[in-house]
Design goal:
By secondary structure, this protein is an alpha/beta fold. The chain is 46% helix and 10% strand. A hairpin with a 2-residue loop joins strand 14 and strand 15. Helix 17 (435-445) runs antiparallel to helix 18.
């Protein structure tokens, strides 16, 4: 028995698609395929997750969860539910239009929550995808171990248009019900259709199905077959009905009346359940699919008709060309009513030949029954479950060029400083400036080699001037916020802003290429250093520790720095001891912002002071934090702002801020310098990839040229504002990644960073 050959791990499968009683072909397919799998493999748990369009459909108990298509947070919730369910594989049914977001990219947020193998069945493969459609498709394909399509043409498009390797593509024809072949007469009588010849078309009614062409063919057929009945079976497509009511159906009825054949055409205006539909198919003498174009690569209606043994007259769309090969169907040109009339009349003129063709069609379709379909699908799912990660795709970049780019930062810098906020890339002067951002910008331009020396020096003067102007000698502290009118909005800035400014001064004193900047920073650092003694907030102290550690690199004998660093290290030890639990190895009882700066401060201060115990504590707490910041699928998930202030709580996924990714990269760089483990390189790369789209929403936070960074990820998508903090975070992250490459050229995966 095939089930016995499955790996023990494949005992639980999640399926994502539409579901009955939603009225659409994908719902019919997904529900019937799940039903067939459950029947053939009853020992395997199969959870069906259904996309919901908000039309009020009430799902049965066979659906594990309904996911509102336009609610991005629901995808995250569903992905988390799949992960927690114990499912060992996800089988995704993809169709453009059933998922929310641009080109359905909300589904990427669900995929980002899971780390189990993915198999995808593509119900549409577009020959000319737009940019967003290609982006979504390539992202899904990069995660998939196997891809199922239903026609040779679809497989060819995947290889030529989407560059998907053929070894992961499987062709499994559309599934169909199984019934014995029978004469049409009993079914006609049962349905009250009359004894005359019956031609049938079925499916959700909408423009683009070619029904007009079929109706225009009816008068000529009636001349040969006066008792002919043409059945047009199916409710109007819900989207069409919502948009324009029954206008399309009424236009078809008017066309039939105009041609004086309304008595030969019957509309069955309802969504039939499976058994009723099969009854109608078995009553039909001929099945007609008059699609007007070639790009239909899958047709469930055609598969069902063939499975019932119905001779088919069809236009040569892709699925029909493959399914009707070897003489089991009749092809007619697109839009040619006369050809349809001639083909149907010829078939109906010879009842014995029609009956023989029915038998051949039915026999050929046995390999497409749902039972056979389930077995073929399970073979693919089992193989995907048992293999390792999918091989890299041809044409997929393995790393990104991550050179620092100053253009975006320069664009929001005027002669005063760098402005705090932007609205979709446009500087928002209403929010003025802050010393936090100018201190960060000063650190960057004094350490990077991006741009020209003249450009860097010009920017450095502006940022240093802002910091200098922020110094308030009477209070011995820095101001933070300044309005666009160049007036300070406070006499003393926050502890955090003062700690960051002291950090920037220490960094500039150590790294600035210009002697005048190093001298200025050293003097102002010494002026401001006493304020550390009055700091209470751990992060403010951590920022100051980073600045003091940098200063000790310049002046190892700086006694005040040594004394303050020693007391700070002891404080952090006490904090860790007080907050620690068996599952909580952190400095506080909660996670908040800029978390990685705390272990980074321990590592760098421990190194500067020769205190290995402090370094070890920094390394261990950073490892713990990295585990807390790892999504189930393995990508970086920074601590969301929604979890700030919650004692001993697991991190909430949103909102996610670029500052957290930068802090993590910087901390990993400090850790790597401390012990040389490649683990830190890999963790830094994971955090860096968050900017480019390896995140919960699979959404890039940067623009195409890498000069701009958006303000973070929310449950509703990317925050499209582009503040100075976020733009600086991206460029500073690039600089830190370049440091790995410059200091360790032997690490192959960092070759492109240089």
């Amino acid at each position: 028995m095939f089930l016995q050959s499955l790996r023990p791990a494949l005992r639980h499968i999640a399926v994502l698609g539409n579901a009955l009683p939603r009225q659409c072909g994908l719902a019919t397919y997904t529900s019937h395929s799940v039903e067939a799998l459950r029947a053939e493999y009853p020992e395997i748990a199969i959870d069906h997750y259904a996309m919901d369009d908000g039309s009020g459909v009430i799902y049965g108990r066979d659906v594990a969860m309904a996911i509102p298509a336009d609610d991005l947070s629901a995808y995250v919730t569903a992905g988390d539910a799949i992960r927690r369910s114990g499912a060992r594989l996800l089988w995704l049914h993809h169709e453009f239009g059933i998922f929310g977001g641009k080109a359905g990219d909300h589904v990427l947020a669900l995929l980002a929550q899971i780390n189990i193998p993915l198999v995808v069945t593509l119900h549409t493969v577009l020959p000319d995808p737009n940019v967003d459609q290609m982006r979504v498709m390539r992202t899904i394909m990069a995660r998939a171990r196997r891809v199922i399509v239903m026609a040779e043409r679809a497989a060819l498009l995947l290889q030529t248009v989407y560059r998907i390797p053929p070894q992961i593509i499987d062709i499994i024809p559309h599934g169909a019900p199984d019934r014995p072949l029978s004469d049409t007469a009993p079914w006609k009588e049962r349905l009250g259709l009359g004894p005359g010849p019956t031609v049938m078309t079925f499916g959700l009614l909408s423009p683009g199905k070619g029904i007009e062409t079929a109706i225009r063919a009816i008068p000529a057929i009636v001349e040969q077959q006066p008792d002919l009945l043409y059945l047009i079976v199916g409710a109007s497509h819900p989207a069409v009905k919502a948009r324009e009511g029954e206008a399309y159906r009424e236009s078809l009825q008017k066309l039939a009346a105009k041609l004086d054949v309304e008595g030969h055409i019957r509309f069955v205006d309802r969504f039939l359940d499976n058994e009723d539909l099969l009854d109608y198919l078995q009553a039909a003498d001929i099945y007609l699919t008059p699609y007007p174009g070639r790009n239909q690569v899958t047709s469930g209606t055609l598969a069902y008709a063939l499975a019932m043994g119905r001779p088919v007259v069809s236009t040569p769309y892709f699925h029909a060309e493959e399914a009707l090969a070897n003489g089991i169907g009749t092809m007619v040109p697109f839009g040619d009513s006369a050809a349809i009339s001639e083909a149907i009349s010829e078939l109906l003129a010879d009842p014995q030949a029609l009956k023989e063709q029915s038998r051949r069609v039915w026999q050929a379709a046995r390999k497409t029954t749902w039972k056979q379909n389930a077995r073929a699908v399970m073979t693919v799912l089992s193989e995907a479950s048992s293999k390792g990660s999918a091989a890299p795709r041809d044409g997929q970049p393995t790393n990104a060029e991550i050179r620092v780019k100053l253009a975006g930062i320069a664009a929001i810098t005027d002669d005063v400083g760098i402005m705090q906020h932007c609205t979709r890339g446009v500087p928002d002067r209403r929010h003025g400036y802050c010393i936090d951002d100018n201190a960060r910008a000063l650190m960057l331009v004094c350490t990077t080699h991006a741009g020209t020396a003249q450009e860097r020096d010009s920017l450095a003067r502006i940022y240093a001037s802002f910091v200098e102007h922020g110094w308030h000698e009477e209070t011995g502290k820095f101001r933070n916020f300044m309005g666009y009118d160049r007036r300070w909005l406070e006499d003393i800035g926050s502890e955090d802003s003062n700690g960051r400014t002291l950090w920037a001064l220490g960094s500039v004193a150590r790294s600035a290429p210009q002697a005048y900047l190093r001298d200025w920073a050293t003097d102002r650092f010494d002026d401001a250093l006493p304020m550390v003694e009055k700091m209470h907030a751990p992060r403010s102290i951590a920022f100051s520790m980073l600045g003091m550690s940098a200063m000790l690199d310049v002046n190892p004998g700086h006694e005040r720095c040594r004394r303050l660093l020693d007391s700070s290290l002891n404080l952090f030890r006490r904090l860790t001891s007080d907050a620690q639990r068996p599952d909580w190895s952190w400095f506080e009882i909660m996670l908040s912002y800029d978390n990685a700066r705390l272990p980074q401060a321990m590592i760098e201060a421990g190194r500067a002071m020769g205190d290995q115990d402090a370094v070890d504590l920094g390394l261990s707490t950073l490892r713990w934090l990295l585990d807390m910041q790892k999504a189930p699928a393995g990508h970086f998930r920074p601590v969301g702002t929604e979890s700030f202030g919650l004692p001993y709580a697991q991190p909430a996924p949103f909102d996610q801020q670029p500052l957290e990714a930068l802090a993590t990269i910087d901390a990993c760089l400090a850790a790597w310098r401390a012990d040389g483990a490649e683990y830190w390189v890999e963790a830094a790369e994971t955090a860096y990839d968050w900017f480019g789209g390896d995140n919960d929403l699979s959404a890039s936070l940067t623009n195409e040229d890498g000069t701009i960074c958006h303000d973070g990820l929310t449950p509703f998508g990317v925050n499209l504002n582009t503040g100075a903090e976020s733009m600086l975070a991206l460029q500073m992250a690039r600089h830190s990644m370049s440091q790995f490459a410059e200091e360790a050229v032997e690490i192959p995966q960092l070759a492109l960073i240089r």
